[in-house]
Design brief:
Elements lengths: L1 E13 L6 H9 L18 H4 L4 H14 L6 E5 L5 H12 L6 H5 L5 H10 L5 E4 L5 H15 L4 E8 L17 E19 L10 H11 L3 E5 L3 E7 L2
Parallel strand pairs: 2-3, 2-4
Antiparallel strand pairs: 1-5, 4-5, 5-7, 6-7
């Protein structure tokens, strides 16, 4: 078993219909069900000229990052997403299949690190940033990346942003649960508030759908431990009181 430790100074999550901590608590209490009224996420912190080019998912991710880090000195940034801009990529492929030219602008906005790049432009931060995609456990691998950095730079802070949305057609058949786009952002620092351990999933007893949402639910419930599994690994969160 391997493990890391870190401290979460503060965090927030944004999704249509879930715009504040009270609404997220209601979501957690209702077994992670979104409300019937999906109020759009405000994107007031993103400059109007930039909004026009951004996908709805990138808007949520960048807004969450800007909102959380507004008053924070951040030394390293990690963006994590399992699917990234797959919806936009599918649209590009459909245009090509129909014989149309692929839009250069749409192509430039379809790469996996576009949200990270747009955030640094919006915020004016010349800060090192990396983008991670690691299937179901992208958030957890983003935490490992952040923790390794903090081990080497214990006085620094890391901004971690995890974001995703449901798979578009024709890939939606590969997803168990449909959900709106969301973003989870956290300011991490060196410490032992949380321990994250992982080991091989030997039992192959299924896996937790949407690990990032399970982590949000865990943080909201303030429980001591939780197990989150995927086909390869079992992730154990432990909160040190």
């Amino acid at each position: 078993m391997s493990s890391i430790e870190f401290k979460i100074d503060k965090w927030l999550a944004l999704s249509p219909g879930l715009l504040n901590i009270e609404q997220w608590h209601d979501w957690s209490s209702s077994l992670m069900q979104w409300p019937s009224q999906l109020t759009p996420v405000p994107i007031s912190l993103i400059k109007p000229m930039m909004r026009r080019r951004m996908s709805s998912l990138s808007k949520i991710a960048v807004q969450a990052a800007l909102q959380l880090s507004a008053q924070e000195q951040v030394d390293y940034i990690v963006f994590a997403s399992r699917h990234g801009e797959l919806t936009r990529t599918v649209k590009l492929l459909e245009d090509i299949i129909k014989g149309d030219d692929a839009s250069p602008l749409a192509f430039s906005q379809s790469v996996h690190n576009i949200a990270a790049g747009l955030f640094t432009i919006c915020s004016g931060r010349a800060t090192p940033v990396t983008s991670i995609a690691a299937v179901e456990s992208s958030l957890h691998h983003g935490l490992i990346e952040a923790s390794v950095y903090l081990q080497e730079n214990p006085t620094h802070k890391v901004l971690l942003v995890d974001f995703d949305e449901s798979l578009p057609e024709p890939y939606c058949c590969y997803e168990q649960k449909v959900h709106p786009g969301y973003a989870f952002a956290a300011i991490l620092s060196f410490g032992s508030q949380f321990q994250l351990s992982w080991s091989k999933n030997k039992d192959d007893a299924g896996f937790s759908s949407q690990q990032s949402l399970c982590v949000i639910d865990y943080l909201l419930k303030n429980t001591r431990k939780v197990l989150i599994s995927d086909p390869r690994l079992v992730w154990e969160w432990s909160r040190n009181r």
